[in-house]
Amino acid sequence: MNDFRSGFVGIFGKPNAGKSTLLNALLNEKLAIVSPKAQTTRNKILGILTEKNYQIVFNDTPGLLQSVYKLHERMMKEVDLAKQGTDLILFIIDARDDAASNIELLQSLKSKQNTLIVINKIDKGKVGAIEKLKTAFSSLKQVVGIIEISALQKTHLDTLLDAIVAQLPVMPPYYDEDTLTDRPMRFFVAEMIREKLFFALDEELPYHAAVYVRQYEEKNTLTKIVADIVVSRETQKSIIIGKGGSMLTRIGQEARLDIEKFIERKVFLELHVKVRKDWRNNDLFLKEYGY
Ligand code: GDP
Ligand code: MG
User: Fold this and answer.
1) Looking at residue 77, what is its pLDDT?
2) In this structure, which topology does domain 185-288 adopt according to CATH?
3) What pLDDT score does 202 carry?
4) Which of 86, 131, 157, 255 is the most exposed place for a label (fewest CB within 10 A)?
5) Which residues line ligand 1 at a C-beta cut-off of 6 Å?
6) pTM here?
7) Which protein residue's CA is at the shortest distance from atom 22 of ligand 1?
8) Chain centroid to CA 252
9) Which among 50-54, 91-95, 186-190, 210-214 has the top mean pLDDT?
10) Do the domains 185-288 and 5-167 match in fold?
11) Domain-by-domain residue ranges, the chain?
């Protein structure tokens, strides 16, 4: 235990840069939800990776957004929280993205914290463009390294882990080694259901929906879960329910399979769709639904 290293690592970057994919790849568990649409990650998620000689506590943060709704203000607060007590910042960039807008974003964090630049999606990026990104970022003072990876194809993740651990202080672990996350199961269940809304529905609708797990009960042979999908309009409700309930059935089936895989138990999942007018601007609802 002499040179055991531990620390908190904040994951930042534009929406869709691949933050959740990276976290999942590093933890080998489906903790953060991943979808092709931006902004699926609303809450700060802690993932904990414990190995023989280190423990890394990851924060998966929402992308930095304009504060259009109160919901977004909350999300921005989460970003600030993640900054506090962070030993290292991982700043994730899509290999196809431009340097200037990302440098601006990194500087808007107003952090002097050591930062590892992670150029992701190198399976899609062009060598010349990647070199340009590297040159642009290498001149920044807080940048301690630049690593090229593909989170999706899991390339160079060992190099990345080595670079992270090298930046962490010598410190005993913060959490028991079998702790994967400090979030209650309900949270992950809600996220897995919400993820299915993204895949099942088109366009903007999922951004108008929240999922609240009302009941989570371990029975003898299965786990009973009752959850509300909360939307702001009747029209949204009927889209989610679908013809004769077909869409809701499909969402429920797909979510149930994911949850069963995650908790390794049979699941009975009951979903309800509720209309709460304007929930995104209502403090009370935001609190109740865990934002
Ligand atoms: P986040 O918003 O930063 O958390 O981004 P996500 O992890 O949700 O990823 C956004 C999209 O980029 C998803 O469709 C991912 O499958 C995709 N993606 C993530 N990493 C890679 C990568 O290394 N290569 C490619 N080609 N796609 C990736
Ligand atoms: Mg994400």
Assistant:
1) 58
2) GMP Synthetase; Chain A, domain 3 (3.30.300)
3) 67
4) 131
5) 13, 15-21, 34-36, 38, 40-41, 63, 120-121, 123-124, 150-152
6) 0.65
7) 121
8) 22
9) 91-95
10) no
11) 5-167, 185-288
